[in-house]
Automatic annotation (TrEMBL):
<dbReference type="InterPro" id="IPR016085">
    <property type="entry name" value="Protease_inh_B-barrel_dom"/>
</dbReference>
<keyword id="KW-0732">Signal</keyword>
<dbReference type="Pfam" id="PF02974">
    <property type="entry name" value="Inh"/>
</dbReference>
<dbReference type="GO" id="GO:0004866">
    <property type="term" value="F:endopeptidase inhibitor activity"/>
</dbReference>
<dbReference type="InterPro" id="IPR021140">
    <property type="entry name" value="Inh/Omp19"/>
</dbReference>
<feature type="domain" description="Alkaline proteinase inhibitor/ Outer membrane lipoprotein Omp19">
    <location>
        <begin position="124"/>
        <end position="214"/>
    </location>
</feature>
<feature type="region of interest" description="Disordered">
    <location>
        <begin position="33"/>
        <end position="124"/>
    </location>
</feature>
<feature type="signal peptide">
    <location>
        <begin position="1"/>
        <end position="17"/>
    </location>
</feature>
<protein>
    <submittedName>
        <fullName>Protease inhibitor Inh</fullName>
    </submittedName>
</protein>
Length: 214
């Protein structure tokens, strides 16, 4: 009887040990979840990441927009002073100190009108009267100039010129040694200077060469 009780006790202890081992397996602490590299707001949106000077998001040191520190947007690109991402048509962030206005010039800016050459002679109004041949951009037609007062100067008109700018000329005026051709609203279309006997050269508002001669 005692032997049977001893065997039963040993079997019971073995069963308890096996059960403890089973429950202890895998019972260690769960692996830590890595923290996000970029702050997250309450709404779940990624917040700008402040980068230490001379360090980019990958931890590299060097020059470029990371040289003096700054702020990165959710896409990892540097944010400009206006809060907008830098834009560069070559796909690279601009170097520090880059003037963003000059890096992305406006497409619609009018070109600067050329100044008359040094020593260009003064022009008298009466020497411009009558008919002329005007040519620009492969288009040539007739230009007539009078001394009738008109919007922005004196009356002018063209014949056979088609569309603008030549076909839109309605007035002309003088500014020292330059002739200014204008449309019906007084908008400047071209400027010319005297380049020879009965010949005037200059540029249209779009930068095309223009000639008036006879």
């Amino acid at each position: 009887m005692n032997q049977a009780a001893s065997i039963a006790a040993v079997l019971c202890l073995g069963a308890l040990a096996a059960g403890c081992s089973r429950f202890d397996y895998g019972g260690g602490p769960a692996p830590a979840v890595s923290a996000p590299r970029q702050p997250v707001s309450e709404g779940g949106a990624l917040q700008p990441l402040v980068v230490a000077p001379n360090q980019d998001p990958a931890g590299r040191y060097g020059s470029g927009p990371y040289a003096s520190g700054g702020t990165l947007g959710p896409d990892g690109r540097p944010i400009g002073a206006d809060g907008q991402p830098y834009y560069n048509p070559n796909g690279q962030p601009p170097q520090p100190g880059t003037d963003m206005a000059s890096a992305n010039p406006g497409d619609g800016a009018a070109p600067t009108q050329p100044a008359p050459p040094a020593g260009a002679p003064e022009i008298g109004r009466t020497e411009l009267l009558g008919g002329w041949t005007i040519a620009s951009g492969g288009n040539a037609c007739k230009l007539f100039m009078t001394l009738t007062t008109w919007s922005g100067g004196y009356r002018a008109n063209t014949q056979g010129c088609g569309g603008p700018p030549l076909g839109a000329i309605s007035a002309w005026d003088l500014n020292g040694s330059q002739i200014i051709l204008k449309d019906g609203d007084g908008t400047q279309l071209a400027t010319l200077y005297k380049s020879g006997t009965e010949r005037y050269d200059g540029r249209t508002g779009s930068g095309q060469p223009i000639t008036v001669s006879r």
